[in-house]
Write a structure and sequence with these properties.
The protein is α/β, with parallel strands linked by helices. Helices cover 38% and strands 21% of the residues. It contains 14 helices and 20 strands. A hairpin with a 5-residue loop joins strand 5 and strand 6. The longest helix is centred in the N-terminal third of the chain and has 21 residues.
């Protein structure tokens, strides 16, 4: 029996237990533990603590802030194996993926620590005796909301960016996968972060967001999640004139040009599509393959999907774990049924694998009509849809047809094709000849309904700052 950590709130530098709701293991549907729900008093204490902590933290030197971020990252690396087990228990992904996620969170903290020391201002030339200084200062208390699909990676981006920029933060992490956030916050507490600078709460999501966002102490909102929820939070923040960083859903198109290697592209695509059981906002989902390569690409993709071993994430033989919750299982079954009823060909998977646990195979649909729900709604699961196209213009047009614009992908050997793709694709990130959408050092975020603002890179830290211009007349008139 693998141990699952005790879950607590972290407010004003203190850990606190509370009543709450069960955390379910998606592999066998057993109860792992109870996630505590914050009371209104807990939220008020977190607001007060974050307000007080900000005064200390914003005056802490960037070098000292970096030291604490780096120490927290080092502690997470030391604890990576035990944290990975907790992530697999609560979210389902294979243990290797969980460990990679923990180490990825560490890499993001490392980057933020270093980049926080480079939040430079500038001097603008003026008239004789006049100096204009541009300063970047912490925006203030941040209210952050992270999703269930990456229990430690997503919180690390919000916490790392906010803290490196000199802000304090109240993190509302997922109630379904809370252990990653608890481990992250514990590392910061053990690294010596001053009380109140980082607070962790759980509870009924809309109750917490609707209470925290309007509070005068909160100056910024950062959210990763679905488009509908993101729009509601952004609207609420807009009523109070508060900036948001919104990393919302995607529906990743993949364009396979006529000069690509169809088998290599299919194998890479199927492997990436299975990551986290497809529950990734950047997942490759809609495949637009040049007609001359369509047969070979589809055959190779199906072969890879059929060979994939689906099972408990703690089993070393498992290449893909269960879906994270029963909602995703029901959604996959519904989307497949809708697509096939409208003429799509089911080539692999398509049905629940066993009665206990939320297991669903990597599913491949071909010749999927644009009217199918899965072609218009983010599947957020192991569902790939493959369609032929006659040329690159058609592929780009179909890739851009949806209101999503988070990540997009393409395979080509042509510099000319790559240039047309870079210019024509409507997405925050375009990856060519690989399927990695986000790194610590590169900006990540969407356009259109996929949100605005960026996490990662120098742009990620700038989100947590305000720009102040100081004009100084050096010798005022008598």
């Amino acid at each position: 029996m693998h141990p699952y950590p005790e879950l607590k709130l972290y407010v004003a530098g203190e850990w606190k237990s509370a009543d709450g709701t069960p955390v379910i293991n998606p592999a066998d549907e057993t109860v792992l533990g109870t996630v505590p729900h914050a009371s209104r008093d807990d939220l008020d204490r977190a607001l007060s603590a974050a307000h007080d902590g900000l005064r200390t933290w914003r005056r802490t030197s960037p070098a000292k802030r970096a030291e604490i971020l780096l120490k927290a990252a080092a502690l997470l690396r030391e604890r990576a194996d035990e944290i990975a087990v907790a992530l697999t228990l609560e979210q389902g992904k294979p243990l290797g993926e969980s460990r990679t996620e923990v180490l990825g969170a560490c890499a993001k903290l490392d980057w933020d620590a270093a980049e926080g020391r480079r939040l430079y201002g500038r001097i603008i030339p003026g008239d004789h005796g006049m100096r204009h200084m541009v300063l970047r200062q912490p925006i203030g208390v941040v209210s952050g909301y992270s999703p269930w699909n990456f229990p430690i990676n997503s919180p690390s981006r919000k916490v790392g960016g906010a803290l490196a920029a000199g802000c304090s933060i109240i993190l509302k992490a997922s109630e379904e996968t809370p252990a990653g956030a608890v481990a992250l916050v514990r590392a910061f507490a053990d690294a010596g972060l001053p009380p109140g600078v980082l607070n962790l709460v759980f509870g009924v999501p809309f109750e917490i967001s609707e209470y925290l966002i309007p509070q005068p102490a909160v100056r910024m909102i950062t959210f990763t999640g679905s488009v509908p929820v993101g729009k509601r939070l952004a609207a609420l923040a807009g009523q109070h004139m508060k900036p948001c960083l919104m990393e919302l859903g995607g529906h990743g198109p993949v364009i396979v040009c006529d000069d690509a290697d169809p088998v290599a592209a299919a194998n890479t695509s199927a492997t990436t599509k299975s990551r986290n059981a497809g529950q990734v906002c950047t997942a490759p989902t809609r495949f637009y393959v040049h007609r001359s390569l369509y047969g070979r690409f589809t055959e190779a993709f199906v072969k890879k999907a059929d060979a994939l071993q689906v099972g408990n994430g703690l089993d070393p033989a498992s290449q893909m774990g269960p879906l994270a919750n029963s909602r995703r299982l029901e959604a996959m079954e519904s989307l497949v049924l809708d697509a096939t009823s409208k003429g799509a060909r089911l080539l692999a998977g398509g049905r629940r694998l066993r009665e206990c646990g939320y297991y669903f195979p990597l599913t491949v649909l071909a010749d999927v009509p644009d009217s199918a729900l899965a072609m218009n709604q983010e599947p957020f699961g192991p569902l790939a849809m493959i369609n032929p196209v006659d040329d690159l213009d058609e592929a780009i047009a179909r890739a851009n047809a949806l209101p999503y614009g988070l990540s997009a992908y393409a395979f080509t050997r042509s510099a000319g094709n790559a240039d047309r793709l870079a210019d024509g694709i409507e997405a925050g990130t375009l990856s060519i000849n690989h399927l990695t959408a986000s790194l610590a050092e590169t900006p990540f975020g969407g356009v259109k309904d996929s949100g605005y603002g960026r996490e990662g890179g120098s742009e990620g830290l700038e989100q947590y700052t305000v720009v102040k211009n100081v004009s100084h007349l050096m010798q005022p008139a008598a």
